[in-house]
């Protein structure tokens, strides 16, 4: 089974995926961004736009995730924003056409909630750190796209904690959680570790 965790930037995809992995006995996180970063490294700077626009990225994601799902005994967890209908159909539809059991979840939140979450997030850029201004600019596009029925199953995160989102997805997908919730201080430490490890 492949659990695709979609959502706007700031919706909590990465935290949800890694907390779900922690609470499952045999979950594996597969991050398609890493394929995009590898492709960027092979291209000259002028060609490094949005890697989702590269046909090579989309086909590589389908191939890699099909292989991961076929070879891993537990669920494969994929935190990745995809909001273009044609790209979604090419990737998620392509996986399903190959027989992969894809359970798609779109974490949804109001623009106000997303802006608040992103206001505390920083990203590495040449010369230092900056606020996530690019991600904030994507909020209207992502919120509008993900509200469509094609991006179901929708999971409201405005009024749910990460623990509640994880438990909702696990119950919906029929995945038994084997580890309990963390104590509040441990939970915050875990979130910090995941966040630092995924500063781009």
Quick recap:
The chain is 49% helix and 15% strand.
Jot down its keywords:
200 residues; P-loop_NTPase; five-stranded parallel sheet; Rossmann fold; 7 strands; nucleotide-binding; ATP binding; single chain; two-stranded antiparallel ribbon; 15% strand; alpha/beta
Q: What helical percentage do the residues reach?
A: 40-55%
Q: Could you say which overall geometry the principal axes of the C-alpha atoms support?
A: globular
Largest sheet: 5 strands, parallel
Compute the separation of the termini in Å. Answer: 28 Å
What does this structure look like?
It is built from 9 helices and 7 strands; from the N terminus they run βαβααβαβαββααβαα. By secondary structure, it is an alpha/beta fold. The protein has a single domain (2-197), classed as 3-Layer(aba) Sandwich (Rossmann fold), CATH 3.40.50.300. The strands form 2 sheets. It has a 5-stranded parallel beta sheet, sandwiched between helices. It has a two-stranded antiparallel sheet with strand order 5-6. A hairpin with a 2-residue loop joins strand 5 and strand 6. Helix 1 (13-23) packs across helix 8, helix 1 (13-23) crosses helix 9 and helix 3 (55-71) packs parallel to helix 4.
